[in-house]
Amino acid sequence: MTIKLKEDLAEDCRWAIDMLSNLARYTYIKKKFFETMQYIAGNGTSLHIGIEFDITALLVVNDTECHGINTVHGRVEFIQLVGITQRELEILKADHSRVTILVDNMKKDNPYMVTDMKRTKSYL
Questions:
Q1: Residue limits of the Suppressor of fused-like domain (predicted)?
Q2: Which of 46, 64, 62 has the alpha carbon at shortest distance from 54?
C-alpha cells in the first residue's frame, strides 16, 4: 500500500506514515483488506490532522508505478491511496458506479495519482 504526496518538505509527509500504520493495523486486526476502487471514509475533516484541507477521505487505486508481480506464493498486486474531497466521497456513497469516472477525471490532470492536500478542485 502506497501513497504519493505533493509536498515541498519531507517533514510535511509524516502524518501519512501514521495514517498508513493505522490502516496496516486495521487490516491485521480485522483481517479485512482493501481493494481497488474502494473508498476509505474519514471523519469529514482533513486527513492531515491539525491543518485544514479539503481532502478528507481516500480512494484505493492500482499503484501507478508498482505493477503486480507473480511469486511462488501467488500474485501480488500493489495498491495506492489517493486523497479525495468530502464532496467526491458523498457522491461515491450515493452512487459507487461513478468511481471509474472519478479516477479517469483525476488521471487527466494527475496521471500518477499524487495526493495534493491543497487540492480544491472536484473531479465529480
A1: 2-119
A2: 46
Which ranges constitute the DSSP H helices of 1-124?
A: 14-30, 86-94, 99-109
* Residue ranges per structural domain of the chain: 2-109
Asked if residues 63 and 79 have their Cβ atoms less than 8 Å apart, the reply is yes
**Under the phi-then-psi rule, with left for phi > 0, alpha for psi from -120 to 50, and beta for the rest, what region is 31?**
left
Compute the average pLDDT of residues 11-29.
93
**Residue 86 CB contacts under 8 Å (≥ 6 apart), including other chains:** 44, 54, 56, 57
> pLDDT at residue 51 above 90?
no
Which residue is it, cell 479539503?
A: 54
For position 61, what pLDDT does the model report?
A: 98
Phi-psi region of 108 (alpha: psi -120 to 50; beta: other; left: phi over 0): alpha
What is the rounded CA–CA span in Å between residue 28 and residue 26? 5
Q: What is the average pLDDT across 13-28? A: 94
What's the pTM value of the predicted model, to 2 decimals? 0.90
